[in-house]
Amino acid sequence: MSELYYLIIKLINLYEIVIIAWVIMGWLQMFNALPYSRPIHLIMGVLYRLADPFLGFFRRILPPVGGLDLSPLVAIIALEMVQILLREIML
Fold it and tell me: What is the DSSP string of 2-57?
């Protein structure tokens, strides 16, 4: 049972990294710190397809406030809460 727990935790941590990478890449593009190139565009597309469905759920609950999208922060907090809940249930 603990192997399953550690696998789920690793997957949740990986998804948190995807969300953080999506946020950072978005900021870099917004401030024109990244030049447009096909590889960067492909990476952003993959990150968007992975992160946006989950973040969209939180955007419907908490719309952007003053142009600031808080959905990544809320999503990461929710994932951390899931990890805590799993630790209590599975260990």
Answer: HHHHHHHHHHHHHHHHHHHHHHHHHHHHHTT-S---HHHHHHHHHHHHHHHHHHHH
